[in-house]
Amino acid sequence: MAGTDDYLRIADAVAADIAAGRLRPGDRLATQRAFARTHGIANSTAHRVYRELARRGLTVGEVGRGTFVRAAQHTPGPALAEPAAPDAGTRVNLELNYPVVPEQAALLAEGMAPLLRPDALDAALRPIGPAGHSPARTAAAALLTCTGFAPDPERVLFAGNGRHAVAGAMAALVPPGGRLGVEAYTYPLVKAIAARIGVTLVPLAMDAQGLRPEAVRAAHRSAPLHAVYLQPTLHNPLGVTMPAPRRVELSDTLRELDLWAVEDAIWLFLHQETDLPPLAALAPERTVLVDSLSKRLAPGLTVGLVLPPAARRDAVASALRSGGWTATGFALEAVTRWLADGTVDRIVRAKRRDAADRQALIRRHLDGFAVSADPRSYFAWWELPEGWRAESFLAAAARRGIAVTPGTAFAVAPEGAQGAAPAPHAVRLALAGAPPDLLPYALSTLAAVARGTPEDAFPE
After folding, report:
1. 80-84, 271-275, 349-353, 356-360: which range is least confident on average?
2. How far apart are the C-alpha atoms of 361 and 352, rounded to whole Å?
3. Which is nearest to 92 in space by CA: 456, 446, 447?
C-alpha cells in the first residue's frame, strides 16, 4: 500500500512526463479509478494525485469529460508600466511581432467548439482549393470592406498565411527574371520570396508620405518594372501611412505606366481612419490586395487573403496552387466562424488597445531619441545616436538578454550593387513579442545603453 506522501512522488512523476513532452497539452489522463489500478494505489491516493496536479496548474478537469493536461500558463507579472528585471537567462524578444492579448484564447475556444463535432470536423479536414467556399469568401469580403470599397466576394482567394498570399501575388504578376519595385525599406520576407522565385527587387525612394510616385516612374524608365509591392498603411518598419492625395497620385501612376501593384494590408486592422481608401479601391484593375488573419488572431492557425483584379484571378489562383501556398480547410473553416460570430472584431479591439499601451511605453522610455512610430502600431524605427552602429547595438542588447532587428534586414540593395544593402544605423523594435511585464524593462535598458557609448556597453 502506498505511504502517506507517495501521492507527491507519483504526482512528481506525472509532472515530469508533462515537462518532457511524453504527456502533451490536451492529452486526457486515465480515470482516477484506472490510474489507481495501474499504479497499485488506493482510489483515495489517486484522488490526491489528481488534486495535486490541478493545484500545480498542470491539469484541468472538465465535468463529464475527464482530466486533461493543461497548456503552459504564463506567470502573472507586474502591471504594464512597472519595469521588472527578467530572470537569469530570459531573452526579451523585440524581433518578432505576434500580438497576443489575454482574452483571445477564451474567445477563440468558444468559436471553435462547434467545429469539433465529428461531422463538422470531417468536412473541415477535407482538401480545399484557393477559392475556398462561398461562406468564407463572403466573410472575407466583409472583412475587407471599408468606406468606398466593397469587394466582390467571388474575387477572394485564400492562402496559408500572409507570406503565402504575398508569394502567390508576386509569382502571378512578375515572371522569373522580372523586376519588382519595392519601398527602399521593405518586409524582409519579400526579399526571401523574390530570391526563391527569381525576381529582381528594385528599391524605390520614400519620403514622409511613403512611396514616391516619381521614383516609380524613374525606375520604370531605367528598365521596365512588372509590378510594385508596397505597404501604404502602417508601413513596417517606418510606421508611415500614405495620405489620400498620394494614394490617388500613385494609382494614376500605375495606370499611366500599365503596372500592377501588390498592396500589403496586413497591419491595416490597427488603423481606424475610414477616409483612406486602399489602392485596391482607387485602382482595382491594377491592384492585388493581400491581407492575413495571423496578426488579428494568432500565428498558429491563420489564413491569408488575396483579392486580385478579375483579369488576374485565375493566374493568382494557379500560383497559389503550384507554390503549395493554399489554405487548409480546417483553418479556413475556423476563421470563417470567427469572422461570422464577431470573435475577430472583439480580438481586434483588444489588440488596438494593447498596441496603444505599448506605444505609450515607447514614448515614455525612449523620449529624446530619434524614434519613428505610429501610436497605433506594434513597431518602432529607432535611428541610433551618433557613435552607434546597428551591429554593435545589437550585440550590446543581446548581452543584456534583449533581441532587436537591425535596419539592414529591411534595406534593399540598389540594382546591380555589389554586396549587401546600405547599412542604416537604425533598429526596428517589435513591441508585440515581449511579455507586458518585461517590455518596460527592455525599453529602459536599451535607452540606458544608447545614452552611453559602445565602449561603455562592453566593459573589460
Report:
1. 80-84
2. 15
3. 446
